[in-house]
Amino acid sequence: MAHATQDFPAESAERAAWLKKKANWIRLSAMTMNHHAKLGHTGGDLSSADILSVLFPGGVLNVDPTEPRWPLRDRFILSKGHGAAAYYSTLAVRGFFPTEQLKTYMDPLSMLNGHPDRNKLPGVEANTGPLGHGLPIGVGAALAARMRHESWRVFVLTGDGELQEGSNWEAAMTAQHYGLDNLTLIVDRNRIQQGDFTESTIRMEPLAERFRAFGFAVAEIDGHSIEGLTERFSNLPIEKGMPSCVIAQTTKGKGVSFAENQPAWHHGVPTREQLAIAAAELGVEVAW
User: Fold this and answer.
1) How do residues 236-284 score in pLDDT, each as one tens digit?
2) Domains, the chain, ranges and CATH?
3) Fewer CB near the terminus (10 Å): N or C of the chain?
4) pTM here?
């Protein structure tokens, strides 16, 4: 049973539309933050927004913004720590801190670093940035829950290019060895990493079969379908006794025409004029 609840439409179609609007707000907020900082990772912020919207404001994660360190909370780890602007925007939407704070992104002494810092920001479970660390941390957390006979779950969101780090596969072997069905790995499969497409850098397919070979139960879904994400995350584990891997097929720069599927927007920073275009295409405004 949830420790804290939030109000959202009960009817599924209305709820999906409500969450899509939240996701688009997260997108525009992240772009505005990157514009302010003159730094950031816009493409991956945009590709992960629907996933984050379903997990946090969508109520999949059993968390309480009024008590961020509640012992029985579900744990979420953003292994792709460079997606911080979207993550921070999501935490603000869920009520962990005021949205007004987002305008300080990467300012001197701001609690909103370029990568998440659990010592500064409520809702952050692990310091991430160097790639390949989130899944090993998540495996340790899931194993801790198992050893304590506690029911909280662990969700880890990785980038797809990040899976070229060998530490992920060491962690995967450990997760299957212990049968950690309280662990869900979500792959933001947008097919672009820094500088180029993933398949031009190091071929990753058949990714689902690779995770199955490492002992995960695997589901491939549309990472921009609110209904599909909600359905999948509401029915975990995929198979009892096995860690779950959800490969979310996404588009880098999703929702913004000039950024979609463009490798340059991995690091792209929008101009004020581009923000206006994005706001019109996304159909939202940021209040701050």
Assistant:
1) 999 999 999 999 999 999 999 999 999 999 999 999 999 999 999 999 9
2) 12-282 (3.40.50.970)
3) N
4) 0.96
